[in-house]
């Protein structure tokens, strides 16, 4: 929400009522911030990882970054389609993300894998709550978007955890 009060909403021919659109825009803003944060957490790991199996892990982290960038765009476009103004700067993301700050001193592969897994799990849980919230509000399209993103986040969590889980 802006410092002046209600966040402005742009005119649109979208058939949802303004109150629903406004609440979905606010929910989407949180997840836009979180997706940007997650994207750059993966990039932080990509740039700084060291150790055995470096190359494969380096590539995995870059792939995770690219996937998260896709979530950023998908969420921002839904938000703006509802009449919102996407707050997609790094500063806005750091203020609005549900994720914990990523440590800047991590270098070892296992440390990055486990720390990223924590972020993916935390955002995955928040996405599942967003699915329920948007579904209960009556916005099937936003609920579907959150479902799609949550499915991808769960898959990425599986890829991360597979590096350190044992049979």
Which sheet architecture does the biggest sheet show? none
- Measured between the Cα atoms of the first and last residue, the distance is 47 Å
CATH topology: Ferritin
Structural class: mainly alpha
What is the name of the CATH class? Mainly Alpha
In CATH, what is the homologous superfamily? Ferritin, core subunit, four-helix bundle
CATH architecture: Up-down Bundle
Strand content: under 5%
Shape: elongated
Rg on CA atoms, Å: 17 Å
> How many E-type strands?
0
- Total of domains: 1
Give the number of helices.
Answer: 5
Mean pLDDT: 93
Uncertain regions spanning at least 5 consecutive residues: 1-5
Question: Helical percent range?
Answer: over 70%
Give the helices and strands as they follow along the chain: HHHHH
Task: Walk me through what this model shows.
With 167 residues, the chain is mostly helical. It has one domain (18-161): Up-down Bundle (Ferritin). Helices cover 70% and strands 0% of the residues. It is built from five helices and no strands. The protein has helices at residues 18-48, 54-81, 90-96, 109-137, 140-161. Helix 1 (18-48) packs across helix 3, helix 1 (18-48) packs antiparallel against helix 4 and helix 4 (109-137) packs antiparallel against helix 5 (140-161). Mean pLDDT is 93; it is low at 1-5.
List the main descriptive attributes of the protein structure presented here.
single chain; 167 residues; mainly alpha; Ferritin; 70% helix; 0% strand; disordered N terminus
């Amino acid at each position: 929400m802006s410092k002046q009060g209600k966040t402005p909403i742009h005119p649109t021919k979208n058939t949802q009522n303004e109150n629903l659109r406004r609440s979905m825009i606010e929910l989407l803003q949180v997840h836009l911030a979180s997706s940007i944060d997650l994207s750059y957490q993966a990039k932080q790991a990509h740039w700084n990882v060291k150790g055995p199996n470096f190359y494969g892990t380096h590539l995995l982290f870059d792939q995770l970054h690219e996937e998260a960038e896709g979530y950023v765009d998908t969420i921002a476009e839904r938000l703006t389609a509802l009449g919102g103004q996407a707050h997609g700067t790094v500063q806005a993301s750091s203020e609005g993300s549900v994720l914990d700050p990523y440590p800047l001193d991590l270098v070892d592969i296992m440390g990055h894998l486990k720390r990223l897994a924590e972020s993916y799990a935390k955002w995955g849980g928040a996405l599942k709550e967003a699915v329920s919230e948007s579904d209960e509000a009556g916005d099937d399209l936003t609920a579907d978007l959150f479902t799609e993103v949550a499915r991808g986040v769960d898959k990425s969590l599986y890829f991360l955890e597979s590096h350190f889980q044992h049979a």
